[in-house]
Amino acid sequence: MILYSGLLQKLDEKGLTKTALAKELGISSRTVTKIGWRENCRLRS
Q1: Alpha helices (H) along 1-45
Q2: Strand, coil or helix: what is 26?
């Protein structure tokens, strides 16, 4: 299990939004929402 709490905390510290993260990484906003809600998500490369 991967915990993203550190990632979300870093975003907040740097003043970045989850939307900016999704755009930068090329992932959907739904995936970012799942990360925030600690739901399972799959990323394909």
Answers
A1: 5-14, 18-25, 29-36
A2: coil
CA dist., res. 13 & res. 1, Å (int): 24
- The encoded tokens of residue 32 equal 């970012």
Give per-residue pLDDT as tens, 2-22. 778 788 889 899 999 989 989
26: left (phi over 0), alpha (psi -120 to 50) or beta: left
Tell me what the pLDDT averaged over the chain comes to.
Answer: 85
- In whole angstroms, what is the distance from residue 17 CA to residue 20 CA? 5
C-alpha span between 35 and 30 (Å, rounded): 9
* Residue 28 amino acid letter: S
